[in-house]
Design brief:
Strand order of the largest sheet: 2-3-1-4-5
Number of domains: 2
Order of helices and strands: HEHEHHEHEEHH
CATH superfamily of the largest domain: Ribosomal protein L10, N-terminal RNA-binding domain
Number of strands: 5
Number of helices: 7
Structural class: alpha+beta
CATH architecture of the largest domain: 2-Layer Sandwich
CATH class of the largest domain: Alpha Beta
């Protein structure tokens, strides 16, 4: 590959990293053509972009960005695919789901991830990444927690109003 072609690929990787909030570095080696097609299809359905990259070009792209990605450099060996997503846990769920399929030989395997401005290195981090909640899920929970006390007050006032109304009606009927 010519030097200018490498520079173009590095620029493409940097541009792609800039378009997405999160990325996962995975090992997809040993997947045959059919399994790779199924992986790409599953990624497309979950709004995850899959890109197969050369390790050295990906490292150079990371080095040219702001931030310290040096922990990831150690896992950049062998076959590497990058999963880009704006949902922090979508690729993790996808990796976990697909790696359970015996036909995939336990692949894809998580090497590292950059999620919510934090680095996660190693396949043992997959369960923690699956458990992460998206921004929308967290906002929904916060709204639910904020609405709960208000709903309790309103229902207490409504039931209390019915009770007072019943007592007044009974007292009015006594005369």
């Amino acid at each position: 590959m010519k030097k200018e072609d490498k520079a173009n690929v590095i620029d493409l990787i940097k541009e792609t990293i800039g378009q997405y909030d999160h990325f996962y570095v995975t090992d997809t080696s040993e997947l045959n053509a059919e399994r790779t097609h199924l992986l790409r299809k599953a990624c497309f359905e979950k709004d995850v972009k899959l890109m197969v990259v050369k390790n050295t070009l990906f490292q150079k792209a990371l080095e040219s960005l702001e931030g310290d990605y040096s922990e990831i450099y150690n896992v950049l060996s062998g076959s590497t695919s990058i999963m880009f997503s704006n949902n922090g846990n979508a690729p993790a769920r996808l990796i976990k789901e697909l790696s359970k399929d015996k036909a995939n030989n336990g692949k894809p395997v998580l090497k590292a991830a950059y999620v919510y401005e934090s680095l996660y290195v190693g396949a043992d981090q997959l369960d923690a990444l699956v458990a992460l909640k998206s921004k929308e899920e967290l906002l929904g929970e916060i709204i639910g927690l904020l609405q709960s006390p208000m709903q309790n007050v309103l229902s207490a006032l409504q039931s209390g109003g019915n009770t007072i109304h019943g007592v007044l009606k009974t007292l009015g009927e006594r005369e």
